[in-house]
Design a protein that fits this description.
This protein is of the alpha+beta class. It has a domain at about 10-90 and about 145-205: NADH Oxidase (3-Layer(aba) Sandwich). It is about 45% helix and about 10% strand. The chain has helices spanning about 10-15, 30-45, 60-70, 80, 95, 100-110, 115-130, 140-165, 175-185, 220, and strands spanning about 55-60, 85-90, 165-170, 195-205. The chain is globular, with a radius of gyration of 19 Å. The two termini are about 35 Å apart. The mean pLDDT is about 95. The chain binds flavin mononucleotide. Flavin mononucleotide binds near residues 20, 169, 170, 172 and 173. Flavin mononucleotide (FMN) binds next to strand 3.
Length: about 230
């Protein structure tokens, strides 16, 4: 498989275009085709041990968005105006542990590895999770591991959006316990197998950002060891 190379400047233009947009033009909707590409970017993102410890809720229901708005101070402008609003969920240790049914299913049925090598793979995952990373010391550590990984599709979705001329905003400004309670009441957390990681809004900017972008110089964040 070969890859058509995108021009360097096109990539940089997309990164420069992407800003954390606070309010979207409510009259502009992202096409189904474009949004599917954003979702594909999430789906094709890498994950540790290939576990895909995530799920994406696309919240289009206005009533539901209103409920979220009450408990999400960081999404006040986004929830009423975003073309598409996504809650990113991560999987709890019940699913991400090497000996779970979820992991077994992932390798056997999703990735399609032959049955005879599945024990070997599971042992490799056990060694990594238990001996190398000590992930199951406590539930929070395991959950943090899954949540960290959700930031890969999270970022990829926004970058792909920018490449398509679509604006976005990453959102962590919400009361996590309240959001999880709301989602659990709606039976959206698979009986505790899923937890809330982050939110991301997509649409088309209503205005240009109030402030020019500030970033540290490259020399302040990159150190080469030659
Ligand atoms: C993990 C994360 C959480 C964020 N949460 C919020 C939020 O709740 N509300 C908001 O308006 N912006 C939020 N932001 C946007 C940041 O404030 C913004 O990305 C940063 O100031 C840099 O600006 P830029 O994205 O326009 O370059 C968040 C960004 C990240 C990466």
């Amino acid at each position: 498989m070969t890859q058509r190379v995108i021009k360097r400047q096109e990539i940089l233009d997309a990164f420069n275009f992407r800003r954390a947009i606070k309010t979207f033009d409510p009259t502009k909707k992202i096409s189904e085709e474009d949004f599917n590409v954003i979702l594909e970017a999430a789906r094709l993102s890498p994950s540790s041990c290939g576990i895909e410890p995530w799920k994406f809720l696309v919240v289009q229901n206005q009533e539901f968005r209103e409920k979220l708005k009450e408990i999400s101070p960081g999404a006040q402008g986004h929830l009423p105006t975003a073309s598409h609003f996504v809650i990113i969920l991560s999987r709890a240790s019940e699913d991400t542990r090497y000996d779970s049914e979820y992991v077994k299913n992932q390798w056997l049925n999703v990735m399609g590895v032959p049955d005879e090598i599945s024990d070997q793979i599971i042992e490799g995952i056990r060694n990594f999770q238990v001996n190398q990373q000590n992930l199951f010391e406590n539930e929070q550590k395991a959950l943090d591991w899954a949540k960290r990984q959700t930031f890969l599709p999270f970022a990829n979705m926004m970058t792909v959006g920018a490449l398509l001329g679509i604006d976005s905003c990453p959102i962590e400004g919400f009361y996590i316990d309240k959001v999880e309670k709301l989602l659990a009441e709606e039976n959206l957390l698979e009986d505790g197998h899923l937890a809330v990681s982050a939110m991301v809004a997509f649409g088309y900017r209503a205005n240009e950002p109030a402030f020019p972008r500030g970033r540290k110089d490259m020399k302040d964040i990159v150190q080469w060891i030659n």
